[in-house]
From TrEMBL:
This is Helix-turn-helix domain-containing protein. InterPro entries: Cro/C1-type_HTH, Lambda_DNA-bd_dom_sf. SMART domains: HTH_XRE. It comes from Aquibacillus halophilus. GO terms for molecular function: DNA binding. Residues 14-67 form the HTH cro/C1-type domain.
């Protein structure tokens, strides 16, 4: 499970999370700090939420049965683990040995 997996699944479930809480699109977009247009695009699967929005959703709706059904009970802990794990895994550089040796 990685950041992209979380983004995809939270984006796909956003409308269900909103409806579960009984919020209108206007209310939900205001709570998340995104435009209604962006929310509609995500709900219609024309766009995905960005990582910051996903973190906000998981923090603000940590008690959502919809989120629990996908990620288990401690959604926010999962988000924290993934976020911190990315910092600990620096990108590996593919160095061509010949190009390094050839310079010297």
């Amino acid at each position: 499970m990685d950041q992209n997996f979380i983004i995809v699944h939270v984006s796909e479930k956003l409308k269900l999370i909103r409806v579960e809480r009984g919020y209108t699109q206007e209310m939900m977009s205001s709570i998340l700090g995104i435009s209604k247009k962006t929310l509609v695009q995500i709900e219609k699967k024309r766009a995905r939420a960005n990582w910051t929005t996903v973190i906000a959703i998981c923090a603000l709706f940590n008690d959502s049965d919809v989120l629990h059904s996908v990620f288990g009970r401690d959604v926010f802990q999962l988000i924290k683990t993934i976020a911190h794990h990315q910092l600990e895994q620096p990108e590996k550089k593919d160095l061509n040995r010949e190009s390094i040796v050839g310079k010297y």
